[in-house]
Structures are given as C-alpha cells and as structure tokens.
Amino acid sequence: MARETWHQPTIVEKRETSINGQTITYTVKRSLRARHVRLEVSRQTGLTVVVPHSYKIGQLPGLLESKERWISSSLARCSNFQSPYAEEELGSGDTIPYLGRDLKLVKRENHSEVDSVTLEGDTLAVSHGLFKKGILELALEQWYRAEAARLINERADRLSSQMGIHCKRIVIRGQKTRWASCSHKKNLSFNWKLIMAPEPVIDYVVIHELAHLKEMNHSKRFWELVAQHCHGWREHKKWLRQHEANLTAKLCP
C-alpha cells in the first residue's frame, strides 16, 4: 500500500487578543519560510498571523493593535459570508474529498515529536496532536497544498512535453474566483482545491492553461488545441461547474 507522508512545516498555537473591546481567539503560525509577518482572515479559521521562526511573540500585541481597524473590518466581512461548513468541526471518522473520492480521517497516536498527515489508501491518518479546533483545518490545507504542488507539477511536466509547450514557473495558490491562471510571463497558477477533483479534471485544467501559452484567449483555435489533447474537456469543464460550490466551501480560506 502506497504511503505518502506530509510533516507539519510550521508551529501552530492559539492566542487571544482584544479587538474593539471584544476578545477574539486567533492562530499563530511560526513558519521557517516566512520572511515577514502576514495577517490572514478566513471564514473557516478566523484571524491567522503567520510569523518568521525567529519573530519575537512579545511584539504581536502592538502589531495587532496597529492593524485593529483592518482586522475588525475583515472579520466583519467574513461573518456575512459564512460557508455551510464554517460551524462544523472535523473529527476522526469524517471524510474529506481527494482526487474525486472521499478520504476517511483517522486519529493516530504520534510517537515522534513531529506531527504528520499520512495517506494510506482511502484513509488519511492524522497525528493526535493536530485534532484541535482550528488547527486540523490548517494542517489539512497545508497537506492539500503539498499534494496539489506534487501532482500538478508532475502533470504539467508530462502534458507540456506532449503539447510541445514550455512554461517558466508553476505556483499553487488559493484563488478566490478561479481554478487557474496564465500570465504573459508564461507562469501558471493553480488553485490548491483542484486536488479534490478527479485526476482527468485536473489534467483538463492543466491543458487549458498550457494552451493559453500559445493562445492567450478563448478563440476557436484555443479550444481546438485543448480538444486535441483533452477529448473529454466539455465533460470535465461541466464537472467543475457543477461541483465548484461544494469544493470551494470545503476548508474555504
């Protein structure tokens, strides 16, 4: 049985602060990759503060106070657009989508110092320490992003070779309104939530963006190029349209 393991790349903790006289709980993610402090507000996890690994946590209260107006307005906007999954807390035994099928979450005792998420067939084994409110969703999103980067890069390498098209760079993002995009610099960006879709659908999206490197439009020639390398593109496009609301709601950033 194939086993694919992702190790937690960040240190995550919960803290509290006062915003406009109201106490809110927020998540601190200490990341080795982060160079600057970054504030994020989402419907699913609320306020998240990403800080460099060497950042002094004692500086956070002053920083949050200086950003109080932005944080308050961002949280207010999110509260007006709750997803149907926002109030649900994932637990052991629940399922999440992956490559067009459901993975069952299973809590595992962790005998090492590093929390991990491990794919075992149709089961996703998650370290016991990650089953905490707000932290599990973050860990799953990071696992999804790593899986999307791995699979999409593999697909893009193979398909670009078949199509005789070269792209400069591939980036995995969390776009709000699109599955992928192509820049004039020949860089391609893909939404990490694509990893929830069946593999043929992912291939269609990759082919679609690669075709834009030759045709930066949706002309007849563009669709002919897509059809040449993806015979079922209409069905795959329809599948994305039909399932978009559900996939973007799951762990929605």
CATH topology type of the largest domain = Zincin-like
Assess the beta-strand content as a share of residues. Answer: 25-35%
The overall pLDDT, averaged over residues, is 82
Q: What is the alpha-carbon Rg in Å?
A: 20 Å
Overall number of strands: 12
**What's the number of domains?**
2
The strands making up the biggest β-sheet line up spatially as: 1-8-9-7-6
- The parts where pLDDT drops under 50 for at least 5 residues are 4-9, 80-87
CATH superfamily of the largest domain: Metalloproteases ("zincins"), catalytic domain
Description:
A five-stranded mixed beta sheet has the order 1-8-9-7-6, with helices on one face. The protein folds into two domains: about 5-80, no CATH class; about 140-250, Zincin-like. A hairpin with a 3-residue loop joins strand 4 and strand 5 (about 45-50). The chain has helices spanning about 60-65, 70-80, 135-165, 200-210, 220-230, 235-250, and strands at about 5, 10-20, 20-30, 40, 45-50, 95-100, 100-110, 115-120, 125, 170-175, 180, 185-190. The chain is globular and about 60 Å long. The chain is an alpha/beta fold. Helix 3 packs across helix 4 (about 200-210), helix 4 (about 200-210) crosses helix 5 (about 220-230) and helix 4 (about 200-210) crosses helix 6 (about 235-250).
